[in-house]
């Protein structure tokens, strides 16, 4: 192999034209990608491009997808270490390639050592400006929004990064259909009030203000994950909240007990199998409260609670929670949208919605958002 | 990252149970994968598996796909060097995973330096036997069969490995639908008589007897590419020949001239745009001749000439060539099958059939083969 | 033509085995079919079957569909008069045919002269018992449920019976998917509180107790349309209410004025385009009230408010109305289900959902009902 | 019912603007529709239209379909007698409706009494000119082309008119996709050489020159069925011949014996299940001969032998027959096209291709014809 002698190394912060997707601290030396769907994007005129990653983890390794001119061309595991990955080579040096390097794995609250960073590129051409897209979308969700189950055989049961995808995902598909850029804030097993296991700490709202507040540990702190997010820098046209599935699951799960304090928590079922009124009320208040918080940080965005890919048991309560918020505030830019349910034909791995279920959800959701965005 | 201390390194030749797909020399130390779709397959009971590759090329880098329990989970470029790639980690150590590491790129006749080898594995479990599938298929073809254009945006024009795929390919899909193992012998731009550019050396029949005879150079010779193929070791139930597209193109292309000898060659068009009778006859004889050769090496296989994904101009001549062979030999196990044409909706990159065109072809072809294989 | 001499005429009331679908007075001499989807069903062992219709109207002629062994084979206009229509002939006399003669047109509140009656049959065989299906469904709705727009070119604008269908309809498709028998109570332009034009008389709840109370005139009175419906005779497992689309339209339509009393009515829009709180409240009370009435007459049925094929502006209010009813009564067998929205590809004639939109709605709705009916 | 007093009766021959589809004698008083897919077409500006039919048969009754503005709105059996059928009523009198009344049933060689005639119309408006479409297609075929099996449940086995359709048919769909007018010459069970039962009289070529020569009896003679067809009046751009399926069946069927002369006929199978060379040759000569005859009458048309919806056993012989014709004549405007095979999912009634199989065939065939017609 003859190495390409025209490759020039540049730190990310030295590149004039690039675009970062997803919440970050703003640092480019290096760039830390926290959330699934976060990415770095280039318009690259040249023949060969490499990216220098630095990766670590205790348990769960990150994966990336590579998208060239809108088409996914590669998806790979990133093992621990600092090394170069070739994005493309041998291409026409005069043609401009739009390139996105996308994090396929969600932020991992359960692995404080899991990090994915980009230091530099090697390239034999020049980078051109990346234009803004007409719309901005923010998705907030759980395992469905993290794309858990969109990769792998139906029989798979291990909870590992391999089965997650940001690209085979209704978030990416919806953004694509609407020609929008997007961000994702998501965590498997979490809810708006509690996690699937009644753990009250596993709620997205508590961490919304931080760059990536659901992470833990000194390493993430040093990376800036707990800094205040700069909301002014990126105001979405719509925020899609796909939460409630784990809150519903909590009613069916055993009591949660804090290993340290012994504190317990349980969303209760009545004997006839229906939800305890009081606990349902707590959920509704969590819905209302999260909307209020979202409005604080997103002044203009339409807030769409989108739910239903794994059944709709919480939908009446979601409606009540949204309704209560609207009545209190007079906010007219809020709505609820029911997503199509997964079927036997569209199930993926780990009993989660498969890629066809995501396609269907994206089709319905993008049709709905189209109407709203026209009015923005 | 804490390394997995249970990983044990083994040379491929030391592994009791594994299965190699595609023509090889038989050597496992290392294993050289020549053809697209060639692969190594394991039934692996353990939590973490790595593969040691050795890769080189002058121009065109190989790519691999990873298939776990029948689902494609990764696809990546392999740059030059000798290194380890992690196939999976963190999985349930007690569950058996069926794993296939598949070469995504065709044998590269134009790059004598292009090699992909597998030396060893690191694994923390045990390998179990890989059962044989009920059928064996061999596909022989050109760029269509090499999956050129099944990856990438429609606008792509560079001739690079990135746009090739063995998995997003009618060959893999057909084998899958029939629960068959399969091999592929294919080369972009080649034909049964000449290449698209009238080059008479670019024909598949001349190299059929060798392991991978269309390669060139001392390196490939040393790797055994020019050895006689061991046909006894693997007798297919059906051989599918998807050739003729480039032979048809030759009529529309300029004369070929040998740079060294000055010898020229041209499949001629008449003034009214139809094919010169004599040259068409040569094509038909090449068809007949190839069938005769295929029968020599594949005593029982049904021979199916399957053609049509990029138009059917050569189909009458193919029928005549097949007919002539049948009349001369009395061989009843030969037929022609027209594949569905690519449409505007199913075109992929580089004006080649896209993944939807391959799905459609596989659906029709597997339906047809099903009938034949029932009678085998 | 040689007439079939084996045909024997029988009044409908003389036939031992037949099944009537849809609300009727119970009379079979003749049988009056009021609602769309109402039908007479036979298991007929014989070669030739004729039906004697009596039809009249001032403006709108009825249409019928003929279904044999589950497949729609004919659809035709029935002009005024009393005459025989051949259902089948020349069939194997020994085979049993399941035959349904289905009214394709809704009850026509705007045409007091529109009637469709069946007097008798001519048949050369014997009728066998028609078995009950495992489930019973009742659909209540507006033009969508009447199948307006499922027949005809997109450009059609006339409001005529030709564009209506009971068979190309989500009601029939849903019942089919669930192997259920079904009834339809529907009227184009009507709502749960008012019609699309604010007419407060155009609401379905006021007429629910009668056999077909939305009709008018002495002729319909004589036919028994205003009699009390015999609810004990047919108790559904689920009632699907697809109302709200015209109630939503009323907010956008001019004030309604009673030509006689001068009384006016208007669901008001605020200046910012949102709904007047008071009027929305009236709608919600109409929703609650209708559920209460439905429960009075359907003791065991699951009540599903299914809405969304032409947008979801009233969905929050529907949820509030349902919620209020549930809170007041403790009734647990009530839910709301959002139907998929019509898209540009699925629009039919008269800007109404086309047959593809109905297929999609039926797929989602039947998946949802399946879960509920399993628990019945 | 108040009759429409504005209706005016006109004999068909008195109408200035109308278009007749399908081969006829030219007579309009009355118009006899012989073939499936034959039709009368109007551009009618008015509110109400009736058609006067005269129908008779000994065994098999005709059916019609009604198409308004390109959408099928009605399909009904026509019983024996002379009577009026209402096509539409209550429509906007100022809008122009394109109306086609289409014969759904093939010409019935087995029922010399089967006739369908149109005498007159009653209309309250005026007829406008019907424009020619850019292309003309002629289809020649057997039961597949007659649409046998596109209506009715899979289990149906009776051979009756109800299961035939001209509209749910690849012929109509292909013409529609290409914006072409079309004619159909077809007969269930017939071939290019013999019928499925080896009957040598059941071949289409022998009757090609006549208006509808495969009919029998003095009644059809009086109607002009045996007159010479006026080929000059309608020259197609392409003739699609879908024959061979019954010729293939003949090899599998018992010997045919003429009840009168005792003459026998049999396409022979060899002991190994392959076709007797001599008989296959006869078939090939029939193919060549039919092409020669078609060319005599259709000077410019592209001749496309399209075959494969029920398997492809005769395809090699068809290719040889076509090839022989081309070699003898030098005719370049001839080709063979393989249609997609019926699958388990696309089977209709009577084990024939269902409507989905016809859709698929039309999609492939129209794509192929598009290329050819562009060059016309």
TrEMBL record, chains A, B, C, D:
Record domain SGNH hydrolase-type esterase: where: 139-321
Pfam short name (any one): Lipase_GDSL_2
Gene3D superfamilies: Galactose-binding domain-like (2.60.120.260), SGNH hydrolase (3.40.50.1110)
Protein name, UniProt field: Endoglucanase
Protein's organism: Paenibacillus vini
